[in-house]
Model the fold of this input.
Amino acid sequence: MAFLDRLKSLLSGGKMDVSKRFALLREAISGTMSKFYMARDLRTGQIVGLKILDAKKTAAIEARYQGMDKPSEGEISLFFDHPRIVKAFEHGITTKGEPYLVMEFLGGPGMNSLIVGRDALLDGRRMRFITQAAEGLAAVHAAGLIHRDVCPRNYILTEDRESLKLTDFGLTVPATPPFMQPGKRTGTPNYMAPEVVRRRPTDQRLDIFAFGVTIYEMCTFELPWLSGATGMAAMSHDTPPTDIRQYSPKLHPRLAKAIHACLEPNVERRCPSIQRFLQFIRGVQDVDGE
Done:
């Protein structure tokens, strides 16, 4: 059977026929760059997540890095084997010329859904989720990468709702000088660091800023600045954010200070690393309380 599968793959030019390989059980998420399905792998019977990227939009993003030897989303995803990052199994090109990625299907909601719904599931779990979210980002940074799209939508809960994992490496780049030059305004506007919006040089600290916005929102169900769907909304991010304790007056002072350190508009005064953030909140057991 494995030989026949390999032979079919060679005859198709190494491309994967989605309809013959997977039973699409339901479309879980549709994004601007891709579609994501809950699917059954017909070879193994395993339930997986199947991400199929828009070929033209993906090519447009990759064109920004032409000649720079940028790893693909699939290559980056397969690199990780970490409990706080979604596990990827396979990547390639479909017979329709679309990049695809096969990964574990987590079964839980995105953190964005919990925030929009002001879900009580977060009560008593915030510190756990904040720590787990930081650990996932720390693994990305330790690998020498910049995620570039840290936001609640890209943190997905497991089916038991007890842990979360970081996903979506579609905008991820190496943390090396060629990829940190000004001009690459990519990401989700409400979570963009000022240096991204103003087209200044960047580094991993742009992820620290986006992480700070994400956990601010997890703690308050509010954004630190006015929201918006375009990059213009992010123009306000070089002004001081609303004090988080205006929304959550009982927030642990050490956690409040750590979040605001991540949100510092001046990159030189911002929390320097996600490891430093984890060190600072060590020992904080509850979001609320002194």
Remarks:
- Strands lie at 22-30, 34-41, 47-53, 88-93, 99-104, 107-110, 145-146, 155-158, 164-166, 173-174.
- The longest strand covers residues 22-30.
- Confidence is low (pLDDT under 50) at residues 1-13.
- DSSP finds eleven helices and ten strands in the chain.
